[in-house]
Structure formats: structure tokens, C-alpha cells
Model the fold of this input.
Amino acid sequence: MRIILIGPPGAGKGTQCQRLVEHLRVPHLSTGEMLRAAVRAGTPEGMQAAAYMENGQLVPDAIILGMVTKRLEASDCRNGCLLDGFPRTLPQAATLDELLERRAMSVDGVIELAVPRDELVRRMLARKRADDDPEIFSKRIASFEVQTAPLLDYYQRQGKLASVDGLGTAEEIFGRVRTAVERFSQRGVRRGHRERTRPEV
Ligand code: AP5
Ligand code: MG
Done:
């Protein structure tokens, strides 16, 4: 299965993906983690990305798309993957759809983790990542609202969106996430069945 997790900074995308990876046995692709690794390794992409990340801004699509395309083409992604933090802009979403379509694949479902801002701030203050400074965090939230939130409508129109309440313990939320994934997989089976039984014309 190919599943996307969307949510503001601190919504629990990484936390829920860690659990889902065990459950679905597909790789976890976090663009934030890939970028942080590139920054640590001092690659040209990492050096370019660092200035944006330190400032709470999105890294340009050109860098992200090159990185994700290469990763999605790896053999371990053939049977699916969990996308965490990607896509984050409408052009990224459109590119992902095209890339998968060329390989006769598609996104099976999108999970939105909905968490109110005061809880996001509480979680951010309890963590100590380099970009968890209150001012940078506000910019990350603003970038989510302006650039990423429109994707919810994009996937809703494709009938792929499941909104999950992201408040509660990580275990409670994982229960809701699993229910959403089961629905995606049932829908996939029905769609596959319809496609197989469609009369030849
Ligand atoms: P990225 O690394 O994706 O960061 P983010 O979206 O800001 O989200 P976080 O990783 O902070 O939060 P999360 O939702 O994963 O929550 P987590 O599980 O960690 O991106 C970083 C930067 O990279 C971006 O700002 C941008 O510059 C760049 N970037 C990345 N992708 C890009 C793209 N596609 N295009 C352009 N630029 C891109 O949880 C947060 C905290 O809360 C943790 O401490 C956790 O332990 C805790 N927590 C989790 N669940 C709960 C719970 N239920 N109750 C209490 N605490 C909880
Ligand atoms: Mg994360």
C-alpha cells in the first residue's frame, strides 16, 4: 500500500509511521529525515536545504522531487511505502501522481492527523530539534496552512482522504490510523474487483 500522512508540524506523523511500518511492512519515507541526513552528510542538496529548514520554510520542490523520485524507484518501494511529510505542495502532489501513474501505481489513501495548535506548541516545547524554536515553529505552522493544507482538498476530491483525530495517546491514535488503513485496503479490493470484472469493450 502507498499511504501518505499529512499534518502540521508536531502532529505525530513520524510517531504514527513508526507504528505503521511494523503493521504494513513497507518502508517509511520521511522527507524531513532524508533532508536532515543530507545536511549531516554535507551533500550539495543538504547544504542548499539547510538554510530553508533553519528558517522554517519549505525546501524548493526541485531538491525534494529529485530526492523522493530516486527513493521511490528503489526496489524496496515496489510493494508500497509510507510517505511522511511528502507531498507538501500541490506541484509535489501532482508530480507524485504522474510518477506513480507512469508505473501503473497510485496512492491508496491519505491520512490527515488533525491536532489543535496549542497541543502542537506543547509538543514542540517538550522536544529539542534544531527547528523547534518558537519563532521557527510558527513559520512551519504557517507554511503548513498556506502551502500544504490545500492538499487536503486535492485528496478529498480524489476520494482518498481520511481525517483522524490526532489528540490522545499515541496508541489511541494508532487505533484510528489502523481503522483508516483497513478502509483504504477494503476500497482497494473493491476497486480491483470492479476493474477485473469490467466487461471488455
Ligand atoms: P519534517 O521533519 O517533516 O517536520 P514537520 O512536518 O515540521 O513535522 P515534525 O517532524 O516536527 O512532526 P511530526 O508530525 O512528524 O510529529 P512527531 O511524530 O515527530 O520537516 C522538517 C523541515 O524539512 C520542513 O520544515 C521543511 O523545511 C523541510 N521539508 C520536509 N519535507 C519537505 C517537503 N516535502 N517539501 C519541502 N520541504 C520539506 O511528534 C512530534 C512530537 O510530539 C514528538 O516529540 C513526539 O514524541 C510527540 N508526540 C507524538 N505523538 C504524540 C501524542 N499523541 N501525544 C503527545 N505527544 C506526542
Ligand atoms: Mg516528523
About this structure: The longest strand covers residues 109-114.
